[in-house]
Amino acid sequence: MSEGKKNQFEKSLKELEKIVEELESGKIDLESSLKKFEKGVELYKNCKSTLDNAQKKIKVLTEELNEEDFS
Predict the structure, then answer these.
(1) Least enclosed by CB within 10 Å: which of 34, 42, 62, 70?
(2) CATH code, domain carrying 51
(3) Domains identified in the chain, total number
């Protein structure tokens, strides 16, 4: 993961954690809750996509290592 993507992932994750805390607190009104929930879903999708891509890369690299072991 490049440094820029890593920083973006970490920023998104922290923002998502903050949104979850705010929603769990119950101190915000319904309209604000819905907006924050919507933003949280967007952040979740972005984080999940980043993690999925990292997992795919790890799988490819692991397979390459396994192929080299048998060469």
Answers:
(1) 70
(2) 1.10.287.1040
(3) 1
Tokens 């993961």 correspond to what residue? 1
Task: Give the Cα-Cα-Cα angle 34, 37, 41 (nearest 5 degrees).
Answer: 140
Mean pLDDT, the chain, whole residue set: 91
The pTM of the full predicted model, rounded to 2 decimals, is 0.79
In angstroms, what CA-CA distances link 9 with 5, 20, 36? 6, 16, 18
SS3 14: helix
d(CA 16, CA 9): 10
Residue span of the structural domain in which 17 resides: 3-69
The fraction of the chain above a pLDDT of 90, given in percent, is 79
